[in-house]
Design goal:
Elements lengths: L2 H25 L3 H4 L4 E7 L4 E3 L6 H18 L8 E4 L2 H4 L5 E10 L2 E11 L28 E5 L2 E2 L1 H10 L3 H29 L1 H24 L4 E9 L10 E10 L2 E5 L15 H15 L7 H4 L2 E4 L21 H14 L15 E8 L2 E8 L29 H7 L2 E8 L15 E7 L4 E6 L20 E4 L7 E2 L7 E3 L4 E6 L13 H10 L4 H8 L11 H16 L1
Parallel strand pairs: 10-11
Antiparallel strand pairs: 1-2, 1-5, 3-4, 3-6, 4-5, 6-7, 8-9, 9-10, 12-13, 12-16, 14-15, 15-20, 16-19, 17-18, 17-20
Helix pairs in contact: 1-6, 3-8, 5-6, 6-7, 8-10
């Protein structure tokens, strides 16, 4: 295939995914999909290998869709027919947690299976113990909602009514969930139409040949990058704060990374046993976290199955990185997944100091649910925070998580229009970025007030006790938190493992999403950069002196002599 045709077809795959996603954004019912874009789409070849993603897809989903396809292909074999549409959300087959539901459509030509198109979206509720289906202290996954192994939602073009009835009977606000699933089905129909049009123009032989070459190209690119990394063994670790409030036991993710030639082996042997709570990851989620981390260091490589091939993963069963039924998993994205990324970034910082970054903030998932104006509701919020610093620049402030690139923060106006809440504060959080020669990006602080109704609040988050680490002398970002009625006489630390906490009208909730880890010694930071941080509101005058040894005058300029004296004293104390 000539390179121009190859480029046109492979870019066509990406455009197809983008159009599927646009159809989903415009037709789904849940704000987390229509506004937050908590979705992932893909074109997948007939072998179940990821071929292409779009511009807005969450990396966590795209890596996992391949595991979902493997479950469908192995489970149904020859019983995959034109007009079939599959649905699944089973993390133990290939998924994240039950809220993330995938819909897959096979494509046929003259009776032959040629490819698949798929979309995954976060449903705001899938049943279970609490509104929003987040249950940090769940002992078993049965408390977390409806588990759907791969099954046919449509059979040869006709809806499988039994599956629709099961969804309708097991979820809060079932009309929204049914609206979301129909939007996902419609999005895959758009993908089917556009991929058939592409094949009609170039022929299926050219299209499938382009799929093979796109995968091979990404594999070659990544192997070339890995071959530049010094062979050796590198270690990394990170910690989940605790299993849950009733089991305040930290959990360790341990990683031994071995680089040999043009391949990498991520070995998580030594990680702690499964949590007796929702702080667990399945094998597919752990693999996804590894792929996302490696891909983030080499952004020019197209994301597809070729990125997975040079990477081998060992994740022992019955550990927190490879939990099995009946373990709970709803906290996976906000605990273990993040720590796999943290451990991988730490391990990679040794052989790749020029690409190394401090650990980003930890995702905070929060739901509130109850009745408002005689209607049941479930609101889902996730918070933005700071990314880690790198060898050449500060970390970015106020972004969605590393594996959530493409998602957007749902606008405050949407929350206030649909739910009984008013936001009193939504701002970047000064001093929350990890100090370093390059500073971690600052996180966010936001406060909402419940204006009506009685609701229950649940949260999945972490890094209250183990903040995002810095690297190569950089310091960690700020500790995360969740507080009721902050500053009032009845202030209460709800913690990021809150489950079903009752809120009354007038209560406020403050979400503290920290910043990323710093890079290098803070005392080596250019004083003028610290002064600019103070002017921008990223760093306070007091923090500039305490963390960086920089004295800022009232006019905002650096006090040169006082700074030199302060830094000399701080370095002497550190040396002793």
């Amino acid at each position: 295939m000539d390179p121009i045709t190859l480029s046109v077809i492979t870019n066509g795959f990406k455009s197809i995914v983008n159009e599927m996603n646009l159809a989903l954004f415009r037709s789904a019912y849940s704000p987390v999909i229509t506004e937050g874009r908590d979705i992932g789409g893909a074109v997948i070849d007939r072998k179940g290998r990821l071929v292409a993603q779009g511009d807005w897809d969450l990396a966590v989903f795209v890596a996992l869709l391949e595991f979902s396809l493997k479950g469908i292909i192995e489970g149904f074999g020859d019983d995959i027919n034109p007009g079939d549409v599959f649905i699944m959300n089973d993390p133990f087959v290939g998924g994240t947690h039950f809220n993330d539901v995938g819909v897959v459509r096979p494509l046929f030509s003259d009776g032959r299976l040629m490819a698949f198109v798929a979309v995954c979206g976060h449903w705001a509720d899938v049943g279970g113990q609490e509104p929003g289906s987040f249950v940090a202290n769940a002992r078993e996954h049965f408390q977390e909602g409806l588990r759907l192994p791969p099954m046919k939602l449509y059979i040869r073009g006709e809806p499988n009514r039994a599956v629709f009835d099961v969804i309708n009977a097991n979820m809060r606000i079932a009309s929204e969930r049914l609206g979301d699933v129909r939007a996902q089905v419609g999005a895959t129909q758009v993908g089917e139409q556009r991929l058939n049009e592409l094949a009609g123009k170039y022929g299926w032989d050219q299209v499938t040949g382009a799929m093979d070459e796109a995968i091979a190209h990404s594999e070659r690119m990544l192997r070339q990058e890995i071959s530049r990394i010094p062979d050796g063994t590198y270690l990394g670790e990170d910690f989940v704060d605790m299993e849950s409030l009733d089991r305040p036991i930290p959990k360790r993710v341990a990683l031994t990374l071995t680089v040999e030639g043009d391949s990498m082996h991520f070995d998580f042997t030594g990680s702690d046993p499964e949590s007796l709570s929702a702080s667990n990851s399945t094998y597919s989620s752990t693999a996804s976290a590894v792929f996302v981390t490696v891909k983030s260091l080499f952004p020019d490589i197209p994301m597809n199955h070729g990125v997975f091939v040079p990477i081998r993963i060992t994740a022992p069963e019955r550990t927190i990185v490879n939990a099995l039924p009946p373990r709970a998993i709803s906290s996976m994205a906000a605990t273990v997944y993040e720590k796999v990324i943290g451990a991988a970034l730490l391990a990679l910082s040794g052989p790749l100091p020029e690409k190394a970054v401090g650990t980003p903030y930890n995702l905070i998932n929060l739901t509130i649910g109850g009745r408002y104006r005689n209607t049941e509701f479930v609101a889902y919020l996730y918070s933005e925070g700071g990314f880690g610093a790198r060898s050449t620049k500060d970390g970015a402030p106020g972004l969605v998580s590393l594996y959530g690139g493409g998602a957007k923060i749902t606008p405050v106006e949407v929350f206030e229009r649909r739910y009984p809440m008013v936001f009193e504060e939504w701002a970047l959080w000064p001093d929350s970025g990890g100090p370093g020669r390059y500073r971690g990006g600052v996180g966010s602080r936001k406060t909402f007030r419940l204006v009506d109704a009685e609701v229950r609040l649940s949260c999945l988050g972490d890094r209250e006790h183990y903040p995002p680490p810095g690297i190569l002398g950089g310091e960690p970002g700020a500790n995360h938190g969740l507080v009721r009625n902050a500053g009032g006489p009845d202030e209460e630390n709800l913690t990021l493992k809150a489950v079903g906490f009752p809120l009354q009208a007038g209560d406020t909730v403050t979400i503290l999403a920290g910043g990323g880890g710093g890079y290098g010694d803070p005392l080596d930071r250019d004083p003028e950069m610290v002064a600019e941080d103070v002017r921008q509101g990223y760093v306070s005058v007091a923090h500039a002196a305490e963390a960086y040894g920089v004295v800022i005058k009232q006019d905002g300029e650096v006090a040169v002599e006082e700074t030199a004296e302060l830094r000399s004293g701080l370095k002497s104390r550190a040396a002793s």
